[in-house]
């Protein structure tokens, strides 16, 4: 067993070494980098099981958002004085601000300066700031839901409309459950663009907000479809990372979809900082991300060929470093913290017929996640009509649970129109709201004075 | 004085009588309606100063959202199996659900059944539900910010992108200030479409949520540009309605822009219900709204010709019924609860140079409101480029105040790109956030057990 593990570690190390050498020597030439032993050291520091980290402190360079066109005033989109939006070209009004600085290829990527006493810093702060407790009720941690999208308009015209409906959906769930929202539209680190952008953001938010006990990352293409389901916080009291997934698929099969990073909980502590640091190295765009992608496709089961993504990297990290991280990671499959839309959306009518909100699982999924639909881009992995139609159904399915509080419902899951299902009354407070969402128990929180750090 | 007032009342009554008779006899014929005396009675009940209301209880009919196209599957937008969003026609996937029922022309419009004991109902409920107090801190009322947009995609491609940025902007302000958000996308009452849609919505939310002390309505085209400004709640303790405006312009001049209903506070009490009831009658779409529009254009100063809008109706209501409502209405002009964009957006750089957030007024406006821009529609009142460019600048102006908390800022007010302005540190909690927005005092609230109903 030990022998096998040692071999596995060595294999990982060698792979990473090859990776780095290929990338760096391709860009800067062999002379500047030093000996293979030094290369190996750098790589080992990132992936070794004792979680020691590389030291270099690097100020993040100016970054690009990945968009923003050119040009100054006016343009042919609609004329200088035109009031007509239809023919206007949005990209004509943005100014391209300066050149972006290229990251220094000599320095390995880092999310930020080393912090090894975050638990102490945080508990000190909480003790000094009782008005910002990390628990807002018994068994009720303070949670920040983090989501976002790119700062530029979607390439396809209806994409922004779905982003809008998606954030409304999240606003509704979070209002009912006493959760705050951070909607990000800024790229904090140009190297970590795309799906990796969440890592610098998450780290920044955890360190800025010690009062947050759990950060809940949620993709913009994921929607709440069970407004009544409260997360079982008690279940996670000994865990730091909760993702939807299956132990066997991750640890035994190394299946690239054995877990999902589109909706997950991360506790605010040192362990999380260490995890982010270990997770990040496959992210920097360009050759690192491309080469890492090849490693992941080779090492993980079922993974297509494409650049490294954060989810595959997480599977790989857990599968190869189970001893380091596994005991604090909860792979949840008792309810749909993430629910793949393909197996859910055709069953909504059946769910309405047979079940009720509050279950969170296959009977009434907490989250329906439209992986692969990519409504903001030009092309998705599925037919456009199927995606948009189902996204509207999912939205309406969730929205109905909000509307019923007020006596309304959508005319059908396909319809934007709503209809009244309960008459107005002159005694509105005697009305019983069936789902108990009007003044939900999980919202009736009292502020605790003692922090449970 | 009394003589003049009596004459004014009579004039109002006669005008309304003429209005109703014209409308009703035009639609249903003279025979069904009865005598002029009965007509006069109905009208008088709506506009009389003692606030007695018309009795009929009418169940709201099924409503339309004002959009939603036709067709079932597929269509020529992109082919049945196409993954290409660019050529896809969104309207092909929606089903037109049933016919809408027409409102009964015999019955005057009403927002709902008469309630005259709402203060008692509400205080009883608050006493029984100490976990949902209406004050969440000393001098800190529970506030619900209400906004929204139509359920269908914007006619112009970038409109939804601006709605998205606008709601992110509101999420940021409200998170800092402990305010909850309700984003509405449902048309609750087909007759009160467009700008009047807020009335049934506001009434519904007040009656459903007795724990709300103030409802803050805010248009989707209004943005927060001072993230540090907390509303002076104490100033309003004896008032029920707060709007930006000027007494002289409303009461003396009857100027149609003497106040603004794009951003206002309404306290949750009987007075508010009575106000909504009195405000509503000019709203029902069709002939009533058109004819009411003519009255308003004639009676108010500077008003263009168009159907009755809620803002003009409010000016008219206050100017003609000052004795009834005036003592509980605060026309605020000490800061920009609503700030007309035209006189603000070109000064942002000057503001940054000379002032700082937290002022809320002409030096650093709380709200920049893009009246007339209409980015969701096809045509606005101003050139498209001017509107969109300035909306981006306003968004960035506000967003910079959020980003600076985390050590970033936009490269310029015109740029989507952000740049770092503060290095990462291994002691993030020792960092002083200049604006005090990281853990703002107005957020450090304790839950009070006693309700101040």
Automatic annotation (TrEMBL), chains A, B:
Top-rank taxon, per record: Eukaryota
Region Disordered, annotated ranges: 49-82
Protein name from the UniProt record: Uncharacterized protein
Bias type Basic and acidic residues, positions: 52-61
Keywords attached to this entry: Glycosyltransferase, Golgi apparatus, Signal, Signal-anchor, Transferase, Transmembrane
Pfam families per UniProt: Glyco_transf_34
Signal peptide positions on this chain: 1-29
Recorded coiled-coil stretches: none
Family as reported in the entry's similarity comment: Belongs to the glycosyltransferase 34 family.
Compartments where located: Golgi apparatus membrane
Membrane topology listed for this record: Single-pass type II membrane protein
Gene3D superfamilies: Spore Coat Polysaccharide Biosynthesis Protein SpsA, Chain A
First-listed, main subcellular location of the protein, grouped into a coarse class: Golgi
UniProt feature, compositional bias: Gly residues: 65-81
UniProt lineage: Eukaryota, Viridiplantae, Streptophyta, Embryophyta, Tracheophyta
Species of provenance: Brassica napus (Rape)
